[in-house]
Design a protein that fits this description.
Mean pLDDT: 93
CATH superfamily of the largest domain: Aminomethyltransferase beta-barrel domains
CATH architecture of the largest domain: 2-Layer Sandwich
Order of helices and strands: EEHEEEHEEHEEHHEEEEHEE
CATH topology of the largest domain: Alpha-Beta Plaits
Strand content: 25-35%
Number of domains: 2
Distance between the termini: 51 Å
Helix content: 10-25%
Number of strands: 15
Length: about 290
């Protein structure tokens, strides 16, 4: 398995007898479904339902959880969590100089023992047969040359992350597929922003989605508008040569495809596909004209 060291990530420890209860009541992930040895995605939302912080969360022994997030937002994340702690018996702290390692591949023909790094957490954003493992702590190591390969692997599999693919406080969990990969618990109790997210789920109103963009030429930089018939239908996120993350209105993309209208980013024609692991489809009906 190739391995990369992610020096732009940070770890936040949340521990104490009431740690899990606190987090279960504020984040989107259902911690009752979080098993040892796995890292699941999640988000802390604004009351209006938009993502303030995105992360991976894993168990870290008894009465402790470990949150992996972008290093540049970690201090703000800690401060936000402290606001919710009140008098709960919880210690929240950012771990200093802790490393994050990622290893990945398609190990459907290998035994788990052979393919699993020691002390690793399975990254549950990636569906079988893909296996992605994260190692936390001083033992983490990796090849710098593999950073580019890792980003390409993430992009072609349609896994979006804040900063490089979308801005915080700008998207709902459905927009970046947290409803598809276990990042939202629809059967858990209330959490911050839960009412808006549940309404989108039950009404089926999610239209902006992560798609995988491919082209016959190198794609323009992140943030470039995706156009269909001269109108914006979305935005490019991370790019890796001729592949990219796209966040787009799937109803408008489907209408353009049905009408044979070229979809472009910059001057580059591109194709947009739903990630193979996702459980949604392009809508059958064309979008209503907007006022």
């Amino acid at each position: 398995m190739p391995t990369a060291l992610l020096d732009d990530r940070a770890l936040i420890s949340v521990s104490g007898p009431e740690a899990e209860h606190l987090l279960q009541n504020i984040v989107s992930t259902d911690l009752d479904q979080l098993a040892a040895g796995e890292a699941k995605p999640g988000a802390l939302l604004a009351p209006q339902g938009k993502i303030l912080f995105d992360f991976l969360i894993a168990r870290d022994g008894e009465n402790a959880l470990l949150i992996e997030c972008r290093a540049d937002i970690a201090d703000d994340f800690v401060r936000r969590l402290m606001l919710y702690r009140l008098r709960a018996k919880v210690e929240i702290r950012k771990r200093d100089q802790q490393l994050v390692q990622v290893s990945w591949g398609d190990d459907s023909n290998a035994s788990q023992t052979e393919s699993t790094p020691a002390g690793a957490m399975r990254d549950r954003r990636f569906a079988d047969p893909l296996q992605v493992w994260r190692v936390y702590g001083a033992s983490a190591a990796g090849d710098d040359d593999n950073r580019v390969k890792w980003q390409r692997f993430r992009i072609v599999n349609g896994i979006a992350e804040s900063g490089c693919d979308f801005a915080l406080n700008d998207v709902f969990p459905h927009d970046v597929l947290l409803d598809q990969n276990g990042g939202v618990g629809f059967r858990k109790g209330c959490y911050v922003g839960q009412e808006v997210v549940s309404r989108m789920q039950h009404r089926g109103t999610a239209r902006r989605r992560v798609l995988v963009a491919t082209a016959e030429a190198d794609l323009p930089p992140p943030g470039t508008d995706i156009l269909a018939g001269g109108r914006s239908v979305g935005t490019l996120g991370s790019t890796a040569g001729r592949s990219a993350i796209a966040i787009a209105r799937i109803d408008k993309v489907k209408a353009a495809m049905d009408d044979g209208v070229a979809i472009t980013a910059g001057d580059v024609p591109l194709s947009l596909e739903i990630p193979a692991w996702a459980g949604f489809n392009f809508p059958k009906e064309a979008p209503a004209e907007e006022a």
